[in-house]
């Protein structure tokens, strides 16, 4: 039995690591995200059931991908984490219940759209943009300052001369993605699988002139060391960033009940097609920053936040069913 489980784990790890390489390093995935997520969930379950058999090279041990050669490396003094994820409202309710039990009270959650792009970090010194990087493996990222400077949504000077690191998502708007792929098709170049991979491929160019032509944009969603600025909640952090002149997604909503959280999910599940950018779910963040500090993080994800992923589009599921029946 053990040998069989070990074999199954190894097969999943090998598949997931190949898909991660294609997704994070080559920016050319060969499977849909839900296929990756299903295999990942299967591996997590096996590892929970057989903790002694957990392998060192399991993707559940680490964040994201490799750091590409060709870029200078940036140490993230505060690690850039991923997010735990759930795929149903019931699992989400379980998460909020457990957290409430842990901290001894019901919590308010800042609900945000989960922008389907790639995480970036921006450093401002006395209000001037001086450094920008990718998440990389969470501890070490790639220095992409020159590329980020080409993105018009990133102010080179803030409205106040603050020294601050902020984090957020770089994405390619849907219409830019369609135009880019049309142009690539005409030139006989391979097309990008989705806006997320197009954004990643565009941002990790050694020639920033190429990045400049790709119409990327950003939304910021974290202020690092918020206490320095008297910020006590996530909702306040978003407002403060706006006041500094940073671009923030305006669809966030502070929810104080599970019903409100569920309504937020339903609203954006229905409206996602109308948005100018892709989202793949919603993110719940405990609004109170003291609570965030108390519950802390695992090596990979915060314990005070969670992503709810939308189910795959019907179109994708149909493709999968066909693939499985041939
Ligand atoms: P993730 O994308 O599931 O979630 C974490 C990320 O969400 C954060 O790092 C941040 O970049 C982003 N995010 C967007 N909006 C946010 C907001 N408002 N607040 C906070 N964060 C926000 O996790 P990940 O570790 O980047 O990637 C794992 C996912 O990548 C998998 O679930 C899978 O769907 C996909 N993946 C796909 C393949 C494939 O072959 N198709 C391979 C590897 C990974």
Automatic annotation (TrEMBL):
Annotated NAD(+) binding sites: 33-37, 82-83, 112, 135, 169, 285, 309
Active site: 114
Lineage top rank: taxon: Bacteria
Homology family: Belongs to the NAD-dependent DNA ligase family. LigA subfamily.
Its biological purpose: DNA ligase that catalyzes the formation of phosphodiester linkages between 5'-phosphoryl and 3'-hydroxyl groups in double-stranded DNA using NAD as a coenzyme and as the energy source for the reaction. It is essential for DNA replication and repair of damaged DNA.
The protein's name in its UniProt record: DNA ligase
Species in which this protein is naturally found: Ligilactobacillus equi DPC 6820
High-level lineage: Bacteria, Bacillati, Bacillota, Bacilli, Lactobacillales
Gene: ligA
């Amino acid at each position: 039995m053990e040998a069989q489980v070990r074999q199954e784990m190894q097969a999943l790890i090998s598949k997931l690591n190949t898909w991660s390489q294609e997704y994070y390093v080559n920016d050319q995935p060969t499977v849909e995200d839900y296929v990756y997520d299903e295999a990942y969930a299967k591996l997590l379950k096996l590892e929970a059931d057989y903790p002694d058999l957990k392998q060192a090279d399991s993707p559940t041990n680490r964040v994201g991908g490799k750091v590409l050669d060709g870029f200078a490396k940036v140490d993230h003094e505060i690690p850039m984490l991923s997010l735990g994820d759930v795929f149903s409202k019931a699992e989400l309710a379980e998460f909020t219940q457990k957290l409430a039990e842990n901290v001894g009270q019901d919590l308010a959650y800042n609900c945000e759209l989960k922008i389907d792009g790639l995480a970036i970090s921006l450093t401002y010194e006395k209000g001037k943009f001086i450094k920008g990087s990718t998440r990389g493996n969470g501890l070490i990222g790639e220095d992409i300052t020159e590329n980020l400077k080409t993105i018009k949504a990133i102010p080179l000077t803030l409205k106040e001369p603050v020294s601050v690191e902020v984090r957020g998502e770089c994405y390619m708007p849907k219409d830019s993605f369609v135009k880019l792929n049309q142009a690539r098709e005409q030139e006989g170049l391979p097309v990008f699988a989705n806006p997320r991979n197009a954004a990643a491929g565009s941002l990790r160019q050694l020639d920033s002139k190429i990045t400049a032509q790709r119409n990327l944009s950003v939304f910021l969603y974290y202020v690092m060391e918020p206490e320095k600025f008297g910020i006590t909640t996530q909702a306040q952090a978003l407002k403060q960033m706006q006041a500094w002149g940073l671009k923030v997604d305006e669809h966030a909503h502070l929810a104080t009940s599970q019903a409100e959280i569920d309504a937020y999910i339903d609203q954006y599940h229905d409206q996602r097609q109308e948005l100018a950018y892709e989202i793949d779910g919603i993110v719940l963040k405990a609004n109170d920053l003291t609570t965030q500090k108390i519950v802390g993080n695992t090596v990979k994800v915060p314990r005070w936040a969670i992503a709810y992923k939308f189910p795959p589009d019907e179109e994708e599921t149909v493709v999968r069913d066909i693939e499985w029946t041939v």
